[in-house]
Amino acid sequence: MLHIVELSFVNMVDRLVNSEANCRRIAFIEQCFGASGQPLALPGRALVGEGVLTKMCRKKPKPRQFFLFNDVLVYGSIIISKKKYNRQHLISLEDVKLENVDDEMCRSYTTSGTALRNGWKIISPSKSFVVYAATATEKSQWMSHIRKCVNDLLLKRGITQNSENDSPVWVPDSDASTCMHCKKSQFSLINRKHHCRKCGMVVCNACSNQKWLLPQQSSHPLRVCLTCYMQLTKSKNMTGVTPTPVHDDTSGEDTSDEEDDDRTDGATGEAQDDTFTAYDVIN
User: Fold this and answer.
1) Rounded distance, CA 153 to CA 102, Å?
2) Model pTM?
3) I want to staple 51 with a disulfide (CB 3.0 to 4.6 A). Which of 36, 47, 212, 276 is the partner?
4) The predicted structure's pLDDT at residue 4
């Protein structure tokens, strides 16, 4: 059981930043990601906690290793538990918002035959998704620590958050057998599922045959559904932006963690430890 010391969170992070143990931990994480990962050892950065969470990917839930720093949230696919990760993703905490997911909404999703519970949404302009903790206590610890890091970062930088350009949480493929836009097109091996990158709905090709530049998510135009396309074209903020039509039948999505479930994860080694480990906050 983790016991949070009732001290200033800022003081706790300052202790971590200046500790030799913090430097060692961050260097080890960099080593685990290898050359494909981005450098993590930056001045003023502290590793606040880490653990395994189940991330709801496009096709099904997948375990992902998460690292909470005082300024970014980092996660990746598990190749060898506690030894090797890949597909590193970084999300700036100044943009992160959390939203609770009620357990009643989680029961339709399972992993290893067990209904998923203890979930919440991680929302940001670049990427938004749902994660699940092993226990209610783990969920509480994760959410509490993330919120403290976000609030401390916003206070230090003197900024406020804006939700206007947040990316959507994608509707899982399993939730839609027909297009969520036209309500008619039945999905099949030939009629593929696509995701609107503006609203996250699962749609058919005909209902998502336009692309739009969403700079918070990608430097390239991304597929959007017809409803979002019409809304974007009418938006005063987007006046003068020319939409880019889709000329092929590809999904329009970037290669990302959402496509990991199309590949076989190579997690091996000792059993994964789902426990959230927080640093320098144990009595």
Assistant:
1) 28
2) 0.83
3) 276
4) 39
| Residue 278: strand pairing partners | 49
Through-space distance between the first and last CA atoms of the chain, rounded to whole angstroms: 10
Place of tokens 């938004």: 128
Structure tokens at 24: 């060692």
Give Cα separations from 51 to 43, 68, 78, 184, 277 (angstroms): 23, 9, 11, 42, 6
| pLDDT at site 178 | 96
Can you list the residues of the chain whose pLDDT is less than 70? 1-10, 105-114, 236-273, 280-283
Q: How far apart are CA 168 and CA 176, in angstroms?
A: 16
From residue 137, alpha-carbon distances to 31, 107, 131, 210, 276 in Å are 30, 18, 14, 44, 9
Q: What stretches of the chain adopt beta strand conformation (E)?
A: 47-56, 61-69, 72-80, 84-92, 97-101, 110-111, 114-115, 119-123, 129-132, 194-195, 202-203, 210-212, 222-224, 244-245, 277-278
User: What is the Cα–Cα distance from 120 to 133, expressed in whole angstroms?
Assistant: 9
Give the SS3 label for residue 53. strand
